[in-house]
Amino acid sequence: MRRVVIIGFMLALMLPVVAQIRGNNITVTVQPNHQDWKYKVGEKATFVVSVLKSGTLLDNVQVDYKAGPEMYQDVQKSTMLKNGTMNITGTMRQPGFYRVDVTAHVGGKDYKGACAAAFSPEKLEPTTVMPADFKDFWTRSISEARNTDLNPTKRLLPERCTKDVNVYEVSFQNVRWGCRTYGILTVPVKEGKFPALLRVPGAGVRPYGGDVYTASQGAIVLEIGIHGIPVTMEQYIYDNLQNGALNGYWNYGMDNRDDSYYKHVVLGCIRALDYIEQYTPWNGKEMGVTGSSQGGFLSLATAGLDKRITFYAAVHSALCDHTASLKGVACGWPHYFFWNKGKGMEKNIETSRYYDGVNFARLITNQQKGWFSFGYNDDVVPPTTAWATYNIVAGPKQISPYQQTAHFWYQEQWDEWVEWMLKEMHLR
After folding, report:
1. What is the spatial distance between Cα 167 and Cα 184, in angstroms, rounded to a whole number?
2. pLDDT at 4 over 60
């Protein structure tokens, strides 16, 4: 028996030191010669390409690379790097981003690196036009949605609660009877009135866990889904919907502004604010909205349409400047008109203007504070659109690019985002 106990103890000690797979031994780096990745129009940028094995240059590597304005690269070459490194130069004659993508072929495998340098990004302007009745369309749509009572539901999730935070699954009606928005509400246990934060989702179909951390700091947080389904079901249900009925939902109804899938999505965000105001202990003062990617777009839409929002944090915002590709400029996800240049899609082009983050950003006022962050290497949400959207905002704003990121976060970026929001809620 003693021997069994000793063996069990030794196995327990070994478990934490089981080797984990982290990254690749072979890496490709592409570095600009300006530390801030920023240049003036007409200036020459130099990109240093390095192929490394165990952190040192690898000899005799075959690489392919593309270079030029992002999404419209006009240079494509292959070469052998005898010493594992080379320089590539490029420039822009107008504001934008010059992107270099490198693929190294080593041992029958491909390894990739990228870098997009900014050329006078503060001068970028969006291409999308605001329809003359844009504000009227959304004002009327919000009013029509509010003819339907919220008729809320609320269910405690005791397994998710903490000593400081109560967690609920909630729902409320959206644009018509039976069309519901579901979410996770986290509320401080202690008595009182609190600032509030609406969290809006990135693209996809998934469950939600709720923001217990921010609630533990003293805020009400409502994290919503957009598909009209409960957000606490088993994962396989969301996977089946993602690959089935909701596959490519962002394209649904995009030939008519009243049929667009995003109409009920945007209105669901406004109704979520109605729910917070009417059914939570909100203090009536600080109200924020935040999200990334599709959620960045929804943050702009919510702030633009509803002046209860006092602050918003939009991270690599998608669905911005859809029509840029019609002029040969990088456009926002989902790149509606990139592939066919909008041929035969006149109705879609017109509809897209009612669902463009740029036009919502134009409605943001001086009473609303904004925080923008994104990566220069993002090939899902091009930084061209992110900077152009930021530039169009008239209200108080700050920008915090994390140049090397693509469509993901760095820890420092995440931490800065969280701290900024807590300060806006006067919780720091």
Report:
1. 7
2. no
Predicted confidence (pLDDT) per residue in 254-292, tens digit: 999 999 999 999 999 999 999 999 999 999 999 999 999
Alpha-carbon dihedral 124, 369, 226, 240, rounded to 10 degrees: 60
246 near 204, Cβ under 8 Å? Answer: no
How is residue 373 written in tokens? 């962050």
Separation between Cα atoms, residue 299 and residue 220, nearest integer Å: 17
Both tokens of 76, joined, read 């494509």
Residues listed for the chain: 428
User: Which tokens is 359 given?
Assistant: 């036009």
Task: Let me know if 244 is exposed, middle or buried by CB neighbors in 10 A (0-12, 13-18, 19+).
Answer: exposed
- Contact predicate 298/288, CB 8 Å: no
Please state whether the peptide bond connecting residue 383 to the residue before it is cis, i.e. omega within 30 degrees of 0.
no
234: which 2 tokens? Answer: 């088993």
Q: What pLDDT shows up at residue 326? A: 97
Could you read off the pLDDT of 337-391 as tens digits, one per residue?
999 888 999 999 999 999 999 999 999 999 999 999 999 999 999 999 999 999 9
Q: Which of 170, 254, 252, 184 is nearest to 223 (CA)?
A: 184
Distances (CA, A) of 369 to 217, 300, 396: 21, 11, 5
For the chain, the C-alpha Rg in angstroms (whole number) is 24
Could you give the C-alpha distances from 412 to 373, 384, 387, in angstroms and in order? 12, 23, 20
At 187, list the tokens: 């509320």
Q: Is the dihedral of CA 257, 305, 321, 244 positive or negative?
A: negative
Residue 170 is encoded by which pair of tokens? Answer: 């909630």
Average pLDDT of span 117-146: 98
User: From CA 197, how far away is CA 331, in angstroms rounded?
Assistant: 29
Distance, CA of 340 to CA of 329 (rounded, Å): 14
Cβ atoms of 201 and 295 within 8 Å: the answer is yes
Say if residues 229 and 323 touch (Cβ distance below 8 Å). no
For the annotated catalytic residues, the residue numbers are: 293, 378, 407
Whether pLDDT at 11 is above 60: no
**Cross-strand pairs, 61:** 81
> Which pLDDT tens digit goes with each residue over 319-342?
999 999 999 999 999 999 999 888
Q: Is the separation of the CB atoms in 171 and 230 below 8 Å?
A: yes
Phi, psi of 50 (to 5 degrees): -135, 135
Backbone torsion region of residue 26, taken as left when φ is above 0, otherwise alpha when ψ lies between -120 and 50, otherwise beta? beta
Is 170 a residue whose pLDDT tops 50? yes
Supply the pTM of this predicted model. Answer: 0.94
